[in-house]
Design brief:
Blueprint (H helix, E strand, L loop, with lengths): L1 E4 L10 E2 L2 E2 L6 H11 L4 E4 L9 H12 L11 E5 L12 H15 L4 E5 L10 H9 L5 E4 L5 H7 L4 E5 L11 H17 L4 E4 L8 H11 L9 H7 L11 H14 L3
Parallel strand pairs: 1-4, 4-5, 5-6, 6-7, 7-8, 8-9
Antiparallel strand pairs: 2-3
Length: about 270
């Protein structure tokens, strides 16, 4: 899978605005998706700019501009990486469950073939929270992507999550060298942890900071005996397992939790 991450700006700004794909680079987004499909890859996208009003109808209007039925299939992404960061997770947004629910439902309305997975990011989101318990009860079978390493996997498994991904991104560690060879030892360690924990899905991020075909070859030596590449979205969907959340939470639980954190933080 190839992911277009919109957290890095183009010369004309982000790939998206609150209205849809950035109009100052006409056709670029659809051409990039089409090219990746031509190369035999599934295509994901992580949009940063979301509609200002985050409800189901506004999300639907926005989503139609790039995954709607009028977009040719080869120009439509297969997967959306929903980063909690863009929904105000670090700001302890008390409406995050409401907004994320609206997003999931809007995707189903506009194009149910598109898969949404969730990036749990860093900080307190690396641990099981009421939000995760609510999410996997409300939308069972959602892939949760964990940040940097596999340390948090056992706790989420204990919570009942069954579809976990680890995102390995050495370029976001404390040392900002930006070249692959600086991070090789750490990346290899994390990959070995992923194998040891038998994590089902893996994301290698930060490729714009120095990875190459040779570097990927070194990575594959570690994971190749355990690797099963899915060539279609239906293969990914068929690999998903039912979550078994033991202590389910509601949207109101999530709101109270975040309001309490905001109060304690003096916000």
């Amino acid at each position: 899978m190839f992911c277009l991450g919109d957290d890095t700006r183009t010369a004309k700004g982000h790939l998206f605005t609150g209205e849809g794909p950035e109009p100052r680079i006409p056709g670029f987004f659809r051409k990039a998706v089409a090219y990746a499909h031509l190369r035999g890859l599934l295509v994901a996208v992580e949009p940063v700019a979301l509609p200002r009003k985050r409800d189901r109808e506004h999300f639907k209007r926005w989503l139609r501009t790039w995954i709607g039925p009028q977009i040719p299939a080869h120009e439509r992404p297969d997967i959306i990486k929903l980063s909690l960061e863009w929904f105000g997770a670090y700001r302890l947004n008390p409406d995050i469950a409401e907004e994320v629910e609206a997003f999931f439902l809007a995707v189903r309305d506009v194009n149910p073939d598109v898969l949404v997975y969730v990036d749990s990011i860093g900080g307190l989101w690396r641990k099981p929270q009421d939000f995760h318990r609510w999410l996997l009860s409300r939308f069972p079978g959602t892939i949760l992507s964990h940040y940097l390493n596999a340390d948090q996997v056992p706790a989420f498994r204990k919570m009942g999550a069954r579809n976990m991904m680890v995102q390995i991104n050495p370029s976001e560690t404390a040392e900002k060298g930006g070249q692959f060879f600086i991070y090789h030892e750490r990346t290899v360690k994390w990959l070995k942890d992923v194998v040891r924990h038998r994590v089902r899905y893996l994301s290698l991020a930060g490729v714009n900071f120095g990875y190459s075909r040779y570097n990927y070859g070194l990575f594959l030596e570690i994971i190749r005996p355990h690797l099963n590449l899915a060539k279609t979205l239906s293969e990914i969907r068929s690999s998903l397992r039912p979550d078994q959340i033991k202590q389910k939470a509601t949207k109101e639980n999530v709101r109270r939790w975040l309001l309490g954190l905001r109060k304690n933080a003096g916000r």
